Amino acid sequence: MISPVETWVAERTGLRDNLNPETLKKWQLGKLSALIQYACENTKFYHEKLHSTSDITELPFTSPSDIAADPFAFLAIPQSLVARVTTLANSGTTHLKKRIFFSKADLERTIDFFAVGMSTMVRKGEKSQILISNRTENSLGSLLKESLLRIGVTSEISGTIKSVNAAIEASKGGDCLIGMPAEMLYMSHKAPELRPRSVLLAADYIPQSLINGIKETWKCDVFTHYGHSEFGFGCAVDCDQHNGYHLRDADLIFEIIDFKTGKSAKIGESGEIVITTLSNEAMPLIRYRTGNISRFINTPCGCGSLLPRLGSIEGRISSYIPIGEGKVLSIHQLDEIIFADPNVRSFDASIKNDKVMKTLLLTVDSNGSIDLDSFSDKLPKSINVEVKYDKVDPFSHRAKRRINIVS
């Protein structure tokens, strides 16, 4: 069955049976013109930077540091109409934080998209366990809960969880578990007796080896979602064919660019994801550089969709660490390699800056020793590797996965 996301895009755009890549692009161009006018008239930032154009690639980029420097310069509505404010750390600075604003209508659009995306994973009458976010009003968890309720699915938000045992207890009886990738893999190792029918992994990148591990242990279908807080959490989601993310094209324009030159990447080439909001009332964002790496897929999906899709997220630009001889290392690379070992439950990674050569320090939680020689062969020769074995519960330090730098 064709992805419900494409059906939703067809209805939201009014293109219906006429929806195809060409008609969608034309529709988005019309919305872009209206967006530019709205942003220029209602925000300080874009009033000073934008001019009318029919080519999105001629518009200037917006960076996370722009928002961190002056978030109110992006606010397009009176503060009294702001329904939610999300404060985020900015990876480019140590002290400035990004503040993201949403109106009630912005949040309603997120709920609407969530309900469409989740309909692939759940059935009416089932129960979902939300192992991310908290229970506060308009949080990611509460928006998910409302979206599930609209399609006849009950759910519970676990709230603050600080151990895998607490997560396992909360998840008993859940038909669909929603959580962070490394945490869900750890749960599957610790509680193989859990038998969810489906799992949704929510993160900016998700290693295929980790997906395979969860599928193998729990014998369930595993779905992935790509989202950003800046865009109301929901950007794209895969279907039951698991061959790329179906895009929220009725609300967002996606681009892939060469992150060094800023030029558009060719179809199939990896580059930085750039997103423009078409519907945001509170905080329109134009050509926002996400820092995530992916590529477009323009071949038909097995579900029947003909629209371009987003390939798997290949990592974050900010996570690349130089390790000498022109080589870099990222947590995404490590996750893909290490989680391919079925004995590995979890791990932490640090890099020590020695005078002669950098050393990768791994703390591995596993059922046995990893094959260090085989692992080292997959890494650049410009780095040493040291491994110790210990408990590494990802629920005890919940944050974006990264390689830590130690002196």
User: In angstroms, what is the radius of gyration?
Assistant: 21 Å
CATH topology of the largest domain: Rossmann fold
Main β sheet profile: 7 strands, mixed
Q: How many beta strands in the DSSP annotation?
A: 21
| Level-2 CATH architecture of the largest domain | 3-Layer(aba) Sandwich
Indicate the proportion of strand residues. 25-35%
Secondary structure layout plus pairing:
Layout: H1 4-13, H2 21-42, H3 44-49, H4 64-69, E1 82-89, E2 97-103, H5 104-118, E3 127-130, H6 140-150, E4 154-157, H7 164-171, E5 176-179, H8 181-190, E6 198-202, H9 208-218, E7 221-226, E8 236-238, E9 245-247, E10 252-257, E11 271-277, E12 288-294, E13 296-297, E14 309-310, E15 315-316, E16 321-324, E17 327-329, H10 331-338, E18 344-352, E19 358-366, H11 372-377, E20 383-389, E21 404-406
Explain what this protein looks like in three dimensions:
The protein folds into 2 domains: 1-317, Rossmann fold (3-Layer(aba) Sandwich), CATH 3.40.50; 320-406, ANL, C-terminal domain (GMP Synthetase, Chain A, domain 3). The chain is an alpha/beta fold and 407 residues long. Helices cover 28% and strands 26% of the residues. β6 (198-202), α9 and β7 (221-226) form a beta-alpha-beta unit. α8 packs parallel to α9. The strands form 6 sheets. The protein has a 7-stranded mixed sheet. A 4-stranded antiparallel sheet has the order 10-11-12-15. The radius of gyration is 21 Å and the shape is globular.
Brief digest:
This protein has 2 domains: 1-317, Rossmann fold (3-Layer(aba) Sandwich), CATH 3.40.50.12780; 320-406, GMP Synthetase, Chain A, domain 3, CATH 3.30.300.30. The chain is 28% helix and 26% strand. The chain has helices spanning 4-13, 21-42, 44-49, 64-69, 104-118, 140-150, 164-171, 181-190, 208-218, 331-338, 372-377; strands at 82-89, 97-103, 127-130, 154-157, 176-179, 198-202, 221-226, 236-238, 245-247, 252-257, 271-277, 288-294, 296-297, 309-310, 315-316, 321-324, 327-329, 344-352, 358-366, 383-389, 404-406.
